[in-house]
Specification:
heterodimer; A: about 260 residues; mainly alpha; MetI-like fold; B: mainly alpha; Cytochrome C Oxidase, Chain A
């Protein structure tokens, strides 16, 4: 409850601190406008035309439907990766041997491009939900696994010894010692994975689905409709920005507050 | 007060008016604010004739408020601030008198430009350039000699104002349809000047207020935020000069508005912000941010009002900055403690309302003429109040027995 109240009361100051980001984004839009004036609307429509197309998509309910579908796929893949990646990473972190063994496997997973996984997924799952979900999962898994592994490996042994000496109850060890430390590694990994899941799901849909934002992008591309193409890109980026800056970033700050107190 | 003004008119170096550079110029600023607005209101309401300057009535209104009213305040501010910031001697009374004469001559030359034709336009341009050039020449060696050279931005803004004046007069001579664009660039230069000057003034004022309230927190005018804002103002101003009315300048105006709001993060130091001096200075940024947003929305959407936004910058941000600087420095450099009387917050509120009413005219307020007149009357009232309360201080000797521009003596 305290956490929730602190989060709510900090919202105005947090939102006001976002004006710098708004200024940067407006400068980006100005550059976009300048490039559009130079190259012409056929190559790059101006932001006004793009936002007009986006508004049409939003007003007609098309954007919400497709975004929801893509969101569901990306979130399913992400959730699977969060559960499996976090647990596997935590377990691997408990044993030095397991950590040593896991490292090359993670390198292999991280080194395999998502497009390669996508081709495999298309062969395994065909043109259904399984393809984007699996591709998002496999792209996020190593990122989260490494975060969890590092969180466990970097636990302060002195603090562990002290907890053992004072016979700290297990739930206190979890909430006051292991939890905050591991979460401070896991949270950034989850946020990174969220961006990855979102992008990879759109990419998978583009090549392997008949619906979702990626499929809508593919249709707009085939019709050479530049404003609608950019509107879909804008919708994807805006959704990600909203989720990250309105939900995850404040939560991350709250979870990592103990670092500031310690500093 | 009339007796004091009559005494001041006698060119004796001993008169208190010449004790400090800001004294005559702050009086000239407030007088110009009223004397330049009354004919404009009479012109708007009853069609009374204005001096037939080249460029038309709008050029007269904009030029005189930027280079009559605002430049006088800048002259007064820099003639006092440069010696203070650089730890050098005050400027001599004779220098101040010459600059004041130059300012008056420049006014006359511009006003008579419509009758005298090209020679008087050239003369007006040369007099304005001489005035700005003389101030820059006086300030440059001191600002340059400062080991850290942290106040050179004042010099660059003066040079930019000189370029704008030259551009304006060249276009007047050439008879082009766009001389006003140089005055719009001047607004951008003044905004940069306000941001630079306010970063110096606010550090002292807000930290003093924090210390008075017993708060341990420090206010810091952070350079990165200020620099982002200055870059945005410059980009918008450049776009307005080269691509006036474009959507590109609309986005840049919105970016500038957002950059003003992010600068205001520095000011969120708790309840102290609601006290008289910090709040008055904070209102400058409120007007500036809203002004740029209003202009941006006016350019990009059917919402907002472009001229309204411009007046939030000029009447609001610039007017409040002038009133704030003249009220703070006007007393401090006469050896008086800050003004705690009620007229000052009322005057600031009046100016804020004047800018708001002018911005809403023709957009939110449908009766445009009434709104214009109300805004103009409020503006005149504010600077008449300033003259009523500050002229007696600026025209009399210091009570602390000190000379020149020294600040209040520490107890």
């Amino acid at each position: 409850m305290v956490l929730l109240w602190r989060w709510v009361s900090g919202i105005p100051a947090y939102l006001w601190s976002g004006w710098g980001a708004v200024a940067s984004l407006c400068l980006l839009l100005a550059v976009w406008e300048a490039v559009s004036i130079t190259l012409g609307p056929l190559i790059l429509p101006d932001p006004g035309a793009t936002f007009g197309a986006l508004w049409q998509l939003l007003a007609g309910g098309v954007a919400a439907r497709e975004l929801l579908l893509t969101g569901q796929r990306a979130m399913t893949g992400l959730l699977l990766a969060m559960v499996l990646g976090s647990s596997a990473g935590l377990l691997a972190g408990l044993s030095m041997t397991a950590a040593m063994m896991a490292r090359p496997l993670v390198t292999v997973l991280l080194g395999t491009p998502p497009i390669a996984w996508l081709v495999l997924a298309m062969l395994w799952f065909g043109a259904n939900d399984g393809t984007p979900v699996f591709t998002a999962f496999i792209a996020c898994f190593p990122v989260i696994f490494v975060g969890a592994l590092q969180g466990t490996r970097t636990l302060d042994h002195h603090l562990k010894d002290m907890a053992a000496m004072f016979r700290l109850p297990w739930h206190m060890r979890l909430t006051d010692l292991y939890g905050p430390h591991v979460l401070s590694y896991l949270f950034p990994a989850w946020i990174n994975a969220l961006g990855t899941a979102w992008k990879v799901a759109v990419m998978a849909e583009l090549l392997a689905s008949a619906d979702g934002v990626g499929a809508a992008l593919a249709i707009a591309r085939s019709q050479l409709d530049m404003p609608v193409t950019l509107a879909w890109v804008g919708a994807v980026v805006l959704t990600l920005l909203l989720v990250e800056y309105l939900l995850l970033e404040p939560l991350k700050r709250e979870v990592e507050r103990w670092r500031e107190v310690q500093a | 007060m009339l007796t004091m003004l009559r005494e001041a008119a006698r060119p004796t170096a001993a008169h208190p008016l010449w004790l400090c550079g800001m004294r005559p110029f702050f009086i000239a600023t407030a007088a110009a604010a009223v004397l330049l607005m009354v004919p404009w209101l009479a012109f708007l309401a009853a069609g009374w004739p204005l001096p037939p300057v080249a460029g038309g009535p709008f050029a007269w209104h904009a030029h005189e408020l930027l280079y009559g009213f605002a430049l006088a305040s800048v002259l007064g501010f820099l003639l006092t601030a440069v010696p203070e910031f650089t730890g050098t001697a005050d400027f001599a009374p004779v220098t101040v008198r010459r600059l004041l004469l130059l300012w008056l001559a420049a006014r006359m030359a511009f006003w008579l430009g419509g009758w005298g034709g090209a020679p008087l336009i050239v003369l007006s341009g040369l007099l304005h350039l001489a005035l700005i050039g003389a101030l820059a020449a006086l300030a440059a060696p001191r600002l340059w000699a400062d080991p850290q050279r942290q106040h050179l931005s004042f010099l660059w803004t003066l040079l930019a104002l000189g370029i704008c004046e030259a551009g304006f007069h060249v276009e007047l001579l050439a008879g082009t349809a766009t001389p006003l664009r140089w005055l719009y660039v001047s607004v951008g230069v003044y905004m940069v000047l306000v941001v630079v000057a306010l970063s110096r003034i606010s550090m002292r004022i807000v930290n003093q207020a924090l210390s008075d309230a017993g708060q341990a927190t420090d206010y810091l005018a952070r350079p990165p935020r200020r620099n982002l804002l200055i870059v945005c103002i410059m980009l918008y101003t450049g776009a307005e000069l080269l691509l006036p009315g474009s959507r590109l300048s609309g986005w840049l105006a919105l970016a500038t508005g957002a950059a003003v709001f992010q600068l205001m993060n520095d000011w969120h130091v708790g309840r102290v912000l609601l006290t008289r001096w910090p709040l008055m200075l904070y209102a400058i940024y409120v007007c500036m941010g809203l002004g740029y947003v209003c202009m941006g929305l006016g350019l990009l959407t059917p919402l907002g009002s472009f001229p309204g936004g411009r007046h939030l910058l000029t009447a609001g941000a610039l007017g409040l900055a002038m009133l704030g600087a003249m009220s703070i420095a006007g007393r401090a450099h006469c050896g008086r403690t800050p003004d705690e009387r009620a007229w000052l917050p009322l005057a600031a509120l009046g100016l804020f309302l004047a800018a708001g009413v002018r911005a809403a005219a023709g957009w939110l307020l449908t009766d445009t003429m009434e709104a214009w007149l109300l805004a103009g009357v409020l503006w005149c009232g504010v600077f008449a109040l300033y003259l009523r309360h500050l002229a007696p201080v600026l025209l009399t000797r210091r009570r602390d027995g000190r000379h020149g521009c020294h600040g209040v003596q520490e107890a």
